[in-house]
């Protein structure tokens, strides 16, 4: 039985502002887990409403490991940065089946919220 999928799409990317409290960073995170013995080579493609996609953001993930890709940090070898409050989709493509989830911490209000965004896997 295969665990995971090679393609994941998370359509509700929207990097929230960091907020006023320096103890809490508003952010989005892409969690990737490789339950295979083989290393995964993963490519992220960012799709936008009003500009061309950004392709070629690569992550390598050893077998039986997990990693967190913070979307508010520089991405890939070129250090691409998303803008705050910029709507986007992230397409995760892997050469081996992986598991992926996407979450957001919004700290703009005192009753901050963390929630996950549903992904489509194929």
Could you characterize what this model shows?
- The chain has 122 residues and is mostly beta strands.
- It has one domain (5-52, 67-121): Sandwich (Hypothetical Protein Tm1070, Chain: A).
- Helices cover 0% and strands 57% of the residues.
- The protein contains no helices and eight strands.
- It has strands at 5-14, 27-34, 40-48, 54-61, 65-70, 87-106, 113-117, 119-121.
- Strands 1, 2, 3, 4, 5, 6, 7 and 8 form an eight-stranded antiparallel sheet that branches.
- Strand 6 and strand 7 form a beta hairpin.
- The model has no long low-confidence stretch (mean pLDDT 91).
The CATH topology corresponds to: Hypothetical Protein Tm1070, Chain: A
The span between the termini is 15 Å
CATH class: Mainly Beta
The chain-level mean pLDDT equals 91
Helix tally equals 0
Shape: globular
- Sequence of secondary-structure elements: EEEEEEEE
CATH architecture: Sandwich
Estimate what percentage of residues fall within beta strands.
Answer: over 45%
Q: State the helicity in percent bands.
A: under 10%
Number of domains: 1
Q: Low-confidence spans: pLDDT under 50, at least 5 residues?
A: none
Main sheet, how many strands, which sense, barrel? 8 strands, antiparallel
Radius of gyration over C-alpha positions, nearest whole angstrom:
15 Å
**What is the tally of beta strands?**
8
CATH-wise, what's the superfamily?
A: TM1070-like
Secondary-structure content class? mainly beta
